[in-house]
Each structure stands twice: as C-alpha cells, then as structure tokens.
Amino acid sequence: MTQEKSKDSLPENFNSTANLTTNAGFPSSLSISSKDVNDDKPYNPFEHREVEHPNSTFGSILHLLKACLGTGILAMPAAFKNSGLVAGLIGTILAGFICTHTVHILVRASQELCVIAKKPSMSFAETCGAAFTYGPKSIRSWGGAIKKLVDYSLFLTYFSVLCVYVVFIGSSFKEVLDVYVPSLQLSIQTYCALTLVPLVLICQIRNLKYLVPFSAIANVLIVIVFAITLYYVFVDLPPITEREMVSKVSQWPLFLSTVIFAMEGIGVVMPVENEMAKPQKFLGCPGVWNTAMIIVITLYGIVGFFGYVQYGDDVKGSVTLNLPQDEIMAQSAKLIMAVVIYFSYALQFYVPMEMVNRMLQNRSSNKFENVIQISIRTIIVTISVAIAAAFPNLELVISFAGAIFFSTLGLLIPAVVDTVFLWDRNLGKFNYVLIKNTIIGIISIIALVSGSYVSVIGMIEDLSGHHDVHFNVTG
Questions:
Q1: Are 212 and 347 in contact (CB under 8 A)?
Q2: Three-state SS string across 351-398, please?
Q3: For 250-267, how does the pLDDT look when each residue is reduced to its tens digit (9 = 90+)?
Q4: Could you give the maximum distance between any two Cα atoms of the chain, in Å?
Q5: Dihedral (CA of 136, 283, 404, 250) sign
Q6: I need a labelling partner for 237 at 20 to 30 A (CA). Which of 126, 224, 357, 432 fits?
C-alpha cells in the first residue's frame, strides 16, 4: 500500500525547486497527500499541511528577500542607463507592482485550487495544471500538458540563470587579473572556459545538505559585497543633472527585461507559501509578500538610481565591475562576488537537475547510475559554459534571459492561470479580471518580443565585430 501510494504521488510533483528542501532558503513545495473529508465542513488545506519545520512569518519574509535580492540588484544601474533616472524610477515601481500582483493571483488561485482538489498544497507547476483541470470543460484535458510545459519552462529559466552566472564569474576575474597580472590579458571567452572544471566538480555534489555550508558562507559574503559596492556608489556623487532623465524609447525593452530578470522570484514563491506556519498571512495587507516586495522595490530603485548617477553611461552589467581598479577593497569585492556566484551556481543547478532526476526514475534498472549522473551533470555545465563563452555580454545575457523566460513565467503564465481558473466562476464586474490579465499578458509579450529582439541584435553585433566583444565587461 505504501509503495503504491509513493508511486501515485510522483507524477504530482512537478515543482522545479522540490529538491531544494534541505536548504533553508529554498523551502519545500512537495505536495502531501490528504485524505478525503467526509463531513460537511469545507476543506481547509492549511489544516492538513504536515510541515516538519514550518517557517515563521518573519522567516518567510527573509526567504523571499534572499530569493529576490540576489545578483539582479547589481544589474539595476545598467537597467537605469537604458531608461533614464525618471523613467527608471517610474518603471521600477510599475514593474514591481505588476510582479507583486501576478504572484498574488497565482498564490490565491493555488490556495483556492487546493480547496477544490482537496490537497494541502500545490507547487507552481501543479497549480498551473490544476487551473486547467478544474477550469472550463473544453480545456480540462490540457491540465497534464500545461503542468509539463511549466516544468520545462522552469528548467529553461534556471538554465539561463546558470549561463548568466558563468559570464559573471568570468568577467569578474578578468576585471581583477587584467590589472594585477597585465601580462595575461586573456579574453572573456577564455575566462568563461576556465570556469568549466571548478563548476563541474562542485556540481557533482548530489546531496544538497553538503552545499548548505557553502550557501551560508555565500550569504555572509554577499552582504560584504553590497556594503563595499554601496560605499563606492555614494562617494562623491556627480550632479544628477549630468544624467539622462528619460532615455531613448528604443532602449526601454532592455530596461524592462533586466528589471523583470532582477525582480522575479517566481520559482520560490510557492515553496515559501507551502512551508509557512501561517500561510494565510502570505497574502493580504500588509502580508508577507507585500512586505517583502516593498523592501525589494525600494532597494532596487535606490541602487539603480544612484548607481546610474555615479557611473552614467559607463555603468556595466553588474555595478561591481565599475568599482575602482586601483583599490584593493574594490577589487576584492569583485572576487568575493565571483565566489558567491560560484556557490550559487551549484544551488541553482539543482533546479534543472531535479527534473532530469525525475526522468531518470522511469528507467527499468539503476545500472551505471554513477556514470549517467556524472555524464549528465558534466554535459549540462559544459553547455552553460559554452553558451556563456559565445555570448559574454553580461547586460545582454541578463536582458535576454529576463525577456524570454522570466517575463513568461513571472507575468504571462500567472495571468493565463488566473483567467482560466476564474473563467466559469467570476471574472468580476464588466469582466475586469479578463481585461486586467489581458493587459498583463500584452506587457509580458511586449517584454518578451522587444527585449529578446534588442538583446539578440546586440549579441549578433558582438559576434560580427561591430561592437567590442567586451562591451559592458571590460569597458
């Protein structure tokens, strides 16, 4: 009976952050089977959640801040360069509001679907599939396919993050070594390639608990990097009038896709909500999510605004790359951040690898398990390094990833899920829900098409030699 129950539960787990459960920063979102309720009392999923170590309300806010306040905040000055100071502030607030709202509608739909399906919790992919399964009759058969689509989308999204991380590590080491070992003068592609062996080695660690100490070290180091970076950002600020208030409209897509990449934490939202001791406090006013996003939007606006004021059009894909080259403290911040990203790569690697492991479970035997695991892990890392070396422009890589993947997962899919779920229930007066979600969908498609187009054109120009291939990396 136990074996049969275990098999039944496997297909239900389509959450790409499922295996991050042992890391406090990536709480579990595995669904726990629930028994049917035979009485007349409405099913309350919160009462049926069996969480071994539930997160407090304050702890949940910290988890969300950890997810959203990553390396993306260092790209905000480059985003402001593509928008201007005034347009950047307004755009950051609007983008933050939309990202906050899309998570609201996704979590609300998930909680209501848990009641309908009589399940204590659902992952991101499960929520998307269930919205169709319990939606209009004509599309209920799409549930399984939608769940798989979202699962594959999560794989590609986090794989794109791995590519960004490789570029960041390579560019950070190049910035430092070009100064202290000028005889080297290696290309950014070479530095990306040199990350291959260290990344392959750390990604062979299969149990996440062995990476927890590295994660803890990374959290301490990133605070040091932020402190050093902010010190240089606020020292001797030039007049604001020297910077553009509103940049060319043709540059706005790069701003929008970069902000979406930086701000979106859609992959960890459901895990955090599922592991809360009081999940009913996730939404609402002030609520866990609202509180976290107010802090995120404020910090992103401050770093983006003053980072652009300080460095202007010379600002790079990560503001740490703009720190003085003749000061040891500034150069050490670049190397420390490279180490942080190295550890973070290993953690992010578990997301796509978790999906691969589920596919491997369908094999008839476990022969050559170690060889297969080592080979697949090495191949995934190698592909990410190859892509990073081919497109080493950090700003364009971030913009492309934000446009293609995060605009889809963070904006378009929640809007579609909310619309499908409420289609036969209540779309509001004058169908305002449909109108509002259509607008969000249009914004996501604009970000997807325009952001990816501008990014791809920039990458092609880099490859063709029309621009310096080290644009925004070596200056």
A1: no
A2: HHHHHHHHHHCCCCCCCCHHHHHHHHHHHHHHHHHHHHHHCCCHHHHH
A3: 888 888 888 887 776 677
A4: 78
A5: positive
A6: 224
91, 249 Cβ separation under 8 angstroms? no
Q: What is the pLDDT of residues 5-42, one digit of tens each?
A: 444 444 444 343 444 444 444 444 444 444 444 456 77
CB 214 within 8 A of CB 208: no
Using a 10 angstrom Cβ sphere, with 0-12 exposed, 13-18 middle and 19 or more buried, the burial of residue 93 is middle
pLDDT in tens, 176-208: 888 888 887 888 889 999 999 999 998 888 776
3-state secondary structure of 273: helix
Tell the residue number behind the tokens 């790209």, with chain if given. 75
Question: Look-up: residue for tokens 């209009």?
Answer: 136
Rounded Cα–Cα distance for residues 127 and 31 (Å): 11
Q: Which residues pair with 276 in a beta bridge?
A: 55
DSSP-derived secondary structure letter, 412: I
3-state secondary structure of 276: strand
Per the document, the length of the chain is: 475
> Distance (Å, rounded) from C-alpha 130 to C-alpha 111?
11
Which residues does residue 55 pair with via DSSP β-bridges, in sequence order? 276
Q: What pLDDT band is residue 209 in, cutting at 50, 70 and 90?
A: low
User: What pLDDT score does 32 carry?
Assistant: 43
- Residues 6 or more apart in contact with residue 282 via CB below 8 angstroms: 60, 107, 272, 273, 276, 288, 289
The residue among 5, 3, 67, 63 whose CA lies nearest residue 31 is: 5
SS3 state of residue 55? strand
Q: pTM, whole model, 2 decimals?
A: 0.74
Residue 337 CA neighbour count, 13 Å, CB half: 33
Question: DSSP per residue over 203-272, as a string?
Answer: TT---GGGGHHHHHHHHHHHHHHHHHHHHHHHTTPPPGGGS-SS--GGGHHHHHHHHHHHH--HHHHHHH
C-alpha–C-alpha distance, residues 369 and 460, integer Å: 40
Contacts of 281 (CB under 8 A, 6+ apart): 57, 287, 288
Tell me the two tokens of residue 79.
């985003």
What is the b/e burial string over 435-460, where b = at least 16 CB atoms within 10 angstroms of the residue's CB?
ebbeebbebbeebbebbbebbbebbe
Residue 168: what residue type? F
Examine the pLDDT at 383 and tell me if it is beyond 60: yes
The DSSP annotation for 87-152 comes to: HHHHHHHHHHHHHHHHHHHHHHHHHHHHHHHT-S---HHHHHHHHHHTS-GGGGGGHHHHHHHHHH
